[in-house]
Specification:
Structural class: alpha+beta
Number of helices: 27
Strand content: 15-25%
Helix content: 55-70%
Shape: flat
């Protein structure tokens, strides 16, 4: 199999091509494809035929080995393309038919032999008739005929072998079909690209909305300019009237001179008004010659005043005849308004204008000429053009997105059945693994809170660290959907990096001693003691790398180094490296070792064991945190795996695992009912709840739990899901539907897949916590649920304070400035806010209930810009920003509900005030 570019150069080959030509792979790459055939021109013609027709089948050619050996082949090929449909080259499969031709020639020889046998039999018959004494010789010939039959059977066997070869070619065709499947995957990626295009379309729509505002503001400015022009005309007419009255008066020469002087001053004032206009203004006599102009006309034409005076007015337009017709229309109708024309600067620059003009007369009513005001609308036309273009593009992008959505929905339906089966398997495996891990990790934490020797503390920390790392690994393997989607989350907690890594490396001491290796630790003391990051994920990365190093190193040493690369006021960048003196990795294999279930070779797996997941998980843990993983290796000398990560600096102390949060006095008397069937887990829950200071009762299954609820009041239930007699789902349904109880119920689940979690919500459980139980998370969830009634009272109090103090939520000063006090534009902006805000609040609340953090963050982000426009306090704006940050990062999720309640109150208050402002503005129009 060979791939060839449009220039006829080989780009890739398989091992069969190397064997049939006798050339090395490097020698074949970039060489002329046609050089390896006995008939180069014929091979070139078949190659051209592929580009013309798209493919060819079974063209006979002869390949030439470098030592002269010839191989007859059937030439099959087709073009291959990129995502846009552009032809990138040709894929060739040359099928060896040398054996097939040999079999064909053998068939011809066999037929000839059969023909000769027929002739001999005829001759034998004649000899029998002629001479019976030759009967013995005829018997010998019959034996020879039997031997020929045996030879024919041997030939039939060889033909069967050829059919087996044909079957092998069918397998090769299936490989080509697999490659087509890969192209279909690429098509799915194009669907994602279309969704990205739809997102860009939304951005353009936002830009279009901004252009609408800018256009309306420009229109407002144009209205102001028209008003000023009208005032100039009125001032002119008033001046004419005054001059006419003064002419009628017969006064002394001195009075006439005084009147003349006053008229001169008035004329200068008029000229100053004309010059103050930013729009080109010009007066033209009845012959079409310019008599006067302002500075704006000088600037827009590039001519001097002297050059403009007495010049033909129409020479400065791109369409002179149209300008002349508009000029004549002024004389016929007395005025024209908003006639579109284009002025031309002397250097070629064009300016779109709206032509407004009216005649002016003397005191006797005789027309003296025309006054023209040309309003520059170039920017306005550009904005209008962009709006049209954006609208067209938006419609096109929407159509593409709709098609992509239909394709995506079809693909989703096909995938759902497979996902359901996988989820059920993951659900079962999760429960079976997490149940014993819950006891191991839980009791390790309990023992760590007791008095221990330093060695005991060290070993238990190692057990705990190992258990935590194992749980993280189990999470990654079981939750395949999360891994495939790249949606792993990372904690941001203060921790002591040096002691954390040291405790993790302690796990390898026994294995290191068994293999007589040396473990060297290099830690940069310039690294701050406490950093903010995810210690469990970091330890899992290093654990996987060190585990590989120990596995593949039989002698020498393993070095774990941690070095500070960069530090500023906020963060540090650290490089981690694990170096061994093991078997090393061939250079050509370093690219594939980070893929799922891949090792350097199949022999590696047989000799050293392993699933090939370790380095793949390392890559998935490093890259989402903004880091990168690198490898340097030499066969039989060793390997170095290194990666870089950034960590936030902090002044906080690292959290101690055995520290218990101080309980509020008012909630210490909490009564908890634990429903759990496994004795080890019962003991663990009793221990944890006793440490919290809560009172607790234990029920072995749902049926016993219901009996206890009927006899005694509890504040909250911790409900296991899988139990005998009555499981957690059945018990919760009974409590909600039969007993009509609203007591908070938290599920204790060993299944963290979406199957059981969705069912928990459906039957009425308030929350869930995954096994192994994290005592801090358990305490936080209990506290959060039992404090919700207090939160509702707090919100009610906040609302009452706002109403009592009559504190205004909005300030429209910025909106007033932004719209230039244009009432219509202000009303439009307020209407837009009133239309979009309530649906956004609804989306935020529903997303919180569904735990759809991506949608929640996006809705909060969309709301943020409107706060500054409507003059809502930055303190309230920061609430929306916190919601966006927490939801996007999926951290501090327990605080989001409180923030959403506050945000809803603020927005409702803002909407009420804006409705009142809208009415006030409307009444002023």
């Amino acid at each position: 199999m060979i791939t060839i570019n449009p220039e006829g150069k080989i780009t890739d080959v398989n091992e069969a091509t190397v064997n049939i030509t006798g050339m090395k792979r490097d020698g074949l790459i970039n060489s002329d494809f046609f050089n390896y055939f006995t008939e180069k021109q014929k091979a070139r013609e078949v190659y051209q035929e592929i580009f013309e027709k798209g493919s060819v089948s079974d063209s006979p050619l002869t390949l030439k080995h470098k030592d002269g050996k010839l191989t007859d082949v059937l030439f099959n090929g087709s073009v291959y393309k990129n995502d846009l449909g552009c032809v990138l080259g040709v894929v060739i499969v040359a099928r060896d038919i040398a054996e097939q031709k040999w079999a064909l020639n053998l068939g011809f020889a066999n037929k000839e032999l059969a023909h000769q046998n027929d002739e001999k039999e005829k001759r034998a018959a004649e000899l029998v008739i002629a001479n019976k004494e030759l009967a013995f010789q005829n018997d010998e010939k019959e034996k020879r005929a039997d031997e020929l039959i045996i030879a024919n059977k041997e030939l039939l066997f060889q033909n069967n072998e050829k059919e087996k070869r044909a079957a092998e070619l069918v397998v090769a065709n299936k490989e080509l079909a697999f490659q087509n499947d890969e192209k279909e995957k690429r098509a799915a990626e194009l669907v994602l690209a279309n969704e990205e295009l739809a997102f860009q379309n939304k951005v353009k729509e936002k830009r279009a909305a901004e252009l609408v505002i800018a256009n309306e503001e420009l229109a407002f400015q144009n209205d102001e300019k028209e008003k000023r022009a009208d005032e100039l005309i009125i001032a002119n007419k008033e001046l004419q009237f005054q001059n006419k009255e003064k002419a009628k008066q017969k006064i002394a020469t001195k009075e006439l001179e005084e009147l003349s002087y006053a008229a001169k001053l008035a004329s200068q004032y008029s000229l100053s008004l004309i010059e103050a206009s930013r729009d080109p203004l010009v007066t033209i006599n009845t012959n079409g010659k310019i008599t006067d102009m302002n500075e704006a006309l000088v600037n827009i034409t590039g001519m001097t005043r002297n050059e403009l005076t007495d010049s033909d007015f129409f020479d400065y337009f791109t369409e002179q005849q149209k300008a002349r017709e508009v000029y004549q229309e002024v004389f016929e109708k007395g005025s024209v308004a908003d006639s579109p024309l284009t002025l031309r600067h002397k250097d070629g620059k064009l300016t779109d204008v709206l032509f407004n003009g009216s005649v002016y007369k003397d005191d006797k009513g005789n027309v003296l000429g025309v006054v023209i005001v040309a309003r520059d609308v170039t920017e306005q036309k550009r904005i209008a053009s962009e709006l049209i273009e954006a609208h067209i593009f938006a419609e096109l992008a929407t159509e593409i997105a709709e098609k992509a959505k239909i394709n995506a929905e079809s693909a989703t339906i096909l995938a759902e059945n497979a996902v359901k089966a996988k989820q059920q398997f993951l659900s079962n495996m999760s429960h079976e693994i997490r149940t014993p891990m819950n006891a191991i990790i839980g009791f390790t934490k309990v023992i760590l809170k007791t008095e221990l020797t330093s060695k005991q503390q060290e070993y238990l920390n190692a057990i705990k660290m190992s258990g935590d790392a194992l749980i993280v690994l189990i999470n990654d393997i079981l939750d395949l959907a999360k891994v495939d989607a790249g949606k792993m989350t990372f904690e941001k907690t203060p921790f002591k990096m040096k002691s954390s890594i040291a405790a993790m490396l302690h796990l390898f001491e026994t294995k290191i001693q068994e293999k007589n290796l040396k473990l060297i630790r290099e830690y940069d003391n310039k690294i701050p003691d406490v950093l903010v990051g995810d210690p469990v994920r970091l330890n899992q990365i290093i654990l996987n790398l060190v585990s590989n190093a120990v596995k593949f190193t039989s002698k020498g040493k393993i070095t774990v180094s941690v070095h500070l690369l960069h530090e500023n006021d906020d963060k540090v960048i650290i490089e981690f490296a694990v170096t061994d003196t093991g078997i090393g990795i061939p250079k050509e294999k370093t690219g594939q070792i980070f893929e799922n279930f891949q090792q350097a070779s199949s022999g590696t797996s047989r000799l050293y064991g392993g699933t090939g997941l370790g380095l793949a998980i390392v890559k998935q843990l490093v890259e989402p945190q903004g880091g990168s993983i690198r490898v340097r290796s030499t066969v039989n000398e060793g390997s170095t795996f290194s990666f870089t990560l950034s960590f936030q600096k902090t002044s906080a102390e690292a959290e101690l695992e055995n520290e218990i949060m101080e309980l509020d006095i008012e909630i210490k008397n909490i009564k908890v009912l634990v429903v759990e069937d496994i004795p080890l887990n019962q003991l663990l829950m009793r221990t944890l709840l006793d440490d919290f200071g809560f009172s607790r009762d234990i029920a072995e299954n749902g049926k016993i739990a219901i009996e206890k609820l009927k006899e005694k009041d509890y504040d909250i239930i911790l409900m296991d899901l899988q139990m005998p007699e009555m499981n957690g789902f059945e018990a919760t349904e009974y409590i909600r539907n039969k007993m009509k109880s609203k007591i908070p119920i938290i599920a204790l689940t060993a299944d963290v897949t979406t199957v059981d979690l969705a069912k928990c919500k459906a039957v009425g459980m308030n929350d869930y916590i995954a096994k192994p139980i994290d005592e801090r998370l358990l305490y936080s969830k209990i506290l959060g649920i039992l404090k919700k009634p207090k939160l509702a009272k707090l919100t009610e109090k906040l609302t009452k304070n706002i109403e009592d103090k009559k504190i205004k939520c909005i300030d429209l000063v910025y909106l007033n400035q932004r719209t230039k006090s244009n009432p219509k534009l202000m009303m439009e902006m307020i209407s837009l806010y009133l239309a979009q805000t309530p649906p956004l609040i609804t989306t935020i609340k529903q997303s919180l209930e569904d735990k759809n953090w991506d949608l929640l963050g996006a809705a909060a982000h969309k709301m943020i810009p409107s706060f500054s426009i409507m003059g809502i306090s930055t303190n309230f704006e920061n609430i929306a920003k916190k919601i966006q940050v927490f939801a996007t990062a999926q951290e501090k999720l327990e605080e989001i509900e409180d923030l959403v309640i506050q945000l809803e109150e603020i927005c409702l208050q803002a909407c009420q005030e804006l409705q009142e402002e809208f009415k006030i503005i409307k009444n002023t129009i």
